Amino acid sequence: MFLNTKKPFNKNISTLSMWAIIWCVIFIFLFIFSTHNTLLAQQNPEDEETESYTREYMGGISFYTNGGLIGSIWYRGNYAITPTRFWGWGVEITNIKSPKEYQVQSQATGNNFILGKKNYLYVLRPQYSRSWTLFEKSPSEGIRIKGNLIGGLSIGFVTPYFIQYNYGTSPGNITRVVSEPYDPAKHTNLNAIQGAGAALEGFGQSKIQLGGHAKASITFDFGVFGSAISAIEAGIMVEGFPNKIEIMTLPFPSPTQEAENRNIFTSAFISLVFGLRR
């Protein structure tokens, strides 16, 4: 085999990082909730007046432990129930990856492709949220801290992963390279894979899987101006589907082995958040 293999991401490091983030978020959640009433009791009504607002409009990008370089993009609107409690709705778009994914390089073209990848898993997440202001900032300084619980439907688009495959030279001395969904039973010569197909090339052939998701997070708002939101959000998420999603397959089919696919996905995440409040 003449493929140049790029070193796969170390799964053990990825797992340790995920659990480190998860336990940090859990600790922060427990600590803040345990001190919430104490903080409120200590606030003096004669202290500097805090900001009052009824709506928040925010969006951002998230980095998931089971996502790509940018795990997702999202939008969320929050509406006040009381000065410290909010309900909201939102939407998020993401691409879930398998920890077994790693890229190899075609010797013929130098293009990269993911060995054994069968499908993409794109997910559209309509969301309902509840948020609590755990610590309020003053108008001119400090950090606003909020706790968030988010959940909703997961609409999964299982999209075929396309590759460029060289079927050889035809009688007319023309090289026939075809872009088509990867099939290990058909594409047995790995050296004939010229690279990956175009992004979203197989989206029209997607199959839909319906599931659900839930997230818990803490938001740290550093916004200097009262109406501006500049924050970091960190948390954990679980997402499930009724059936296993075939993201990966074995490049060499075996009757005694099967690819490690799943229907429950867990991850930790960090988000960069920007927006406005009214």
3D structure, described in words:
- With 278 residues, the chain is mostly beta strands.
- It has one domain.
- It contains 1 helix and 14 strands.
- It has one helix spanning 11-42, and strands at 4-5, 55-64, 72-82, 85-96, 103-105, 112-114, 119-135, 144-160, 162-169, 175-181, 193-196, 207-221, 228-245, 262-277.
- The strands form 3 sheets. Strands 2-3-4-7-8-12-13-14 form an 8-stranded antiparallel β-barrel. Strands 1-5-6 form a 3-stranded antiparallel sheet, with no helix packed on it. A 3-stranded antiparallel sheet has the order 10-9-11, with no helix packed on it.
| Mean pLDDT over the residues | 83
Low-confidence stretches: 7-14, 36-42, 44-48
Biggest sheet architecture:
8 strands, antiparallel, barrel
Q: What overall form do the CA principal axes indicate? A: elongated
Give the helices and strands as they follow along the chain: EHEEEEEEEEEEEEE
| Proportion of residues in β-strands | over 45%
Helical content stands at 10-25%
The N- and C-terminal alpha carbons lie at a distance of 61 Å
Number of domains: 1
CA-based gyration radius: 23 Å
Helix segment count?
Answer: 1
Q: How many beta-strand segments? A: 14
Going by helix content, strand content and strand pairing, the class is mainly beta
Strand order of the largest sheet: 2-3-4-7-8-12-13-14
